[in-house]
Amino acid sequence: MPAVTIYTKAWCPYCDAAKDLLRGKNVAFDEISVDGDTAGQNAMAERANGRRTVPQIFIGDQHVGGCDDLYALERSGKLDPLLG
Predict the structure, then answer these.
(1) Is this structure's pTM higher than 0.90?
(2) Count of structural domains within the chain
(3) Which member of 38, 42, 43, 53 has the lowest number of beta carbons within 10 Å of its beta carbon?
(4) Residues forming a β-bridge with 33
(5) Is the CB of residue 33 less than 8 Å from the CB of residue 5?
(6) What is the pLDDT of residues 2-55, one digit of tens each?
(7) What's the pLDDT at 6?
(8) CA–CA distance, 54 with 76 (Å, rounded to integer)
(9) Cβ(9)–Cβ(54) under 8 Å?
(10) For residue 61, how many C-alpha atoms fall within 13 Å in the half-sphere facing its CB?
């Protein structure tokens, strides 16, 4: 299974929803909090093609997008193949 990374902020309900979906699928993930971390936010945005909202989710080197994007992949049946 490729590594899953999710950039989050503590107060973000979309971050919680994305993590809940991943946990429900028993997917281990690395969480990177960008709360008050300007350098971390800039690194996230660079990696996420300029997107500055959270969450930003990566499966391996592939940028999945945010929470809505993750749930759209799940609904379309495309998430499980990405997770391997």
Answers:
(1) yes
(2) 1
(3) 38
(4) 8
(5) no
(6) 999 999 999 999 999 999 999 999 999 999 999 999 999 999 999 999 999 999
(7) 98
(8) 22
(9) yes
(10) 0
Whole-Å CA distances, 10 to 13, 20, 74, 79: 8, 14, 24, 25
Could you write out the DSSP letters of every residue in 16-40? HHHHHHHHHTT---EEEE-TT-HHH
Query: What is the predicted pLDDT for the residue at 1?
Result: 81
pLDDT at site 28: 97
- The DSSP bridge pattern shows strands 4-8 and 30-33 to be parallel
51: containing domain: 4-83
- CATH number (domain holding residue 46): 3.40.30.10
